[in-house]
Amino acid sequence: MRYTKNFYKKYEEQLLYLFFGALTTFLNIGVFALFVRYMDALAANVIAWIIAVLFAYVTNHIWVFRSKVKGTAGIGKEAAEFFLGRLATLGLEELMIWLGIDVFGFATIPVKIVTQIAVIVANYLISKLIVFRKK
User: Fold this and answer.
1) Using the 8-state DSSP alphabet, how is residue 1 labeled?
2) Contact 99, 54 (CB under 8 A)
C-alpha cells in the first residue's frame, strides 16, 4: 500500500493526465463515431475535437496541472494557449485521418484510434512545456 501511495505521489500528474486523457479520448471517439455516420470524416473529427478540447481544458486546468492562474485575463491567456496547442495537433490528426481513410482506405474507427496515440503524446508535451508550465 505504501508503494502505491509513493508511486501515485511521484507520478500523480502523469497518472491524472492519462486518466482524464482517456476520458477525453473516449469522448472524442464517441462523438466522432456518432457524427461520421452523417458527414465526412474530417468534418466529424472537427466537431469531436471541439467538444473534447473543451472537456480537456477544464480537467487539465483544475485537476491535472492544478493551474494557479486566476482572473479573466489570466484564464483567457491560458485557455488561448491551450486551444492553439490543440489546434496544432488537430492539424496533425486531420492529416493522419485523411491519409489513413481517404488515401490508404483503412477503416474509419481504427484510423481514429491510432491518431489518438500521436495526439495524446503531443498534447501532453504542449500542455506540460507551454500552457501549464510552472512559472
Assistant:
1) -
2) no
pTM of the model: 0.90
- pLDDT band, very low/low/confident/very high, at 78 (cuts 50, 70, 90): very high
Q: Where are the domains of the chain?
A: 2-131
Give me 18's grid cell.
492519462
Distance CA 48, CA 43 (A): 9
Residues in the chain: 135
What span, in angstroms and rounded, lies between the C-alpha atoms of 122 and 97?
A: 16
Return all residues near 8 (Cβ < 8 A) that are at least 6 apart: 15
Q: In this model, does residue 135 exceed pLDDT 80? A: no
Torsion over CA: 43, 27, 19, 78 (sign): positive
User: 106: left (phi > 0), else alpha (psi -120 to 50), else beta?
Assistant: beta
125 to 24, 47, 85, 88: CA distances (angstroms): 16, 23, 10, 12
Q: What Rg value do the Cα atoms of the chain yield, rounded?
A: 16
